[in-house]
Amino acid sequence: MERKASHNLFEVYLRLRPPPTRHGDGDRILDVEPTEDGSHPKHIILNPPTDRRRAIEKFAFTQVFEEDATQLDVFHCTEIVSFVEGVLAPEGGEGTDAVVATLGVTGSGKTHTILGSKTQRGLTQLTMDVLFRSIGENILDPNAAFTAQDSLQAIDGAESSLITASHFFDPPFRDSVASRAPSRAGTPMLVRQIPKPSYVNIPTSKLVTNLPGAFPADCAPSPKSVRLVSEVEETRRLKER
């Protein structure tokens, strides 16, 4: 499928959500302008309330999906298949990037359009279906590759170093993290009192030596290997003596 040329940096589609059933058949705040050639509509006209002195406004979009549009209608008319072809580059060469985003107020149907519902698949599921069907025989056979367990067993952990999570709560690490300036303003959120966490000091020497691949504590030094010992571990070892 060849995507029609567009002079815009991106295309904007408008999808109208059906009104809640409890609202009944009230006055519409907008009208979809029909096209003369019978093609898909591209314009909407806002109808201001009669008690307000506002001009009638008209807005243009790449295409307007009315309330009865299905997920497949949106998927096909937005030509997402051409995006998938650009990413896969079937003719060879480097693939192209593609982004599909939804914008709207809360409850306008963004999640329904992207993720779908129990009865209709969303754009994400439809796109992934086309993507994996297009890959076909190029998908990696999991039976022909090493499993994660095999790859872990093949790793020599003789020289590995295990560090407990409590290490990251040490003051030097906390200071380095706190000194980093935020890249943007913080998102406003509700602030509430959080109970101060309590930590339990657990001797790590007995735990680490029981783990697979841990460096034996009583291993004789060898000129062919070097063992890095932290200051905390060395102090603890001297106290045990």
From TrEMBL:
The lineage of its organism: Eukaryota, Fungi, Dikarya, Ascomycota, Pezizomycotina. One of its GO terms (biological process) is microtubule-based movement. GO terms for cellular component: kinesin complex; microtubule; nucleus. InterPro entries: Kinesin-like_fam (IPR027640), Kinesin_motor_dom (IPR001752), Kinesin_motor_dom_sf (IPR036961), P-loop_NTPase (IPR027417). Residues 9-241 form the Kinesin motor domain. GO terms for molecular function: ATP binding; ATP hydrolysis activity; microtubule binding; microtubule motor activity. It comes from the Eukaryota. The keyword ATP-binding applies. Keywords: ATP-binding, Microtubule, Motor protein, Nucleotide-binding. The keyword Nucleotide-binding applies. This is Kinesin motor domain-containing protein. Belongs to the TRAFAC class myosin-kinesin ATPase superfamily. Kinesin family. ATP binds at residues 104-111. It comes from Fusarium oxysporum (strain Fo5176).
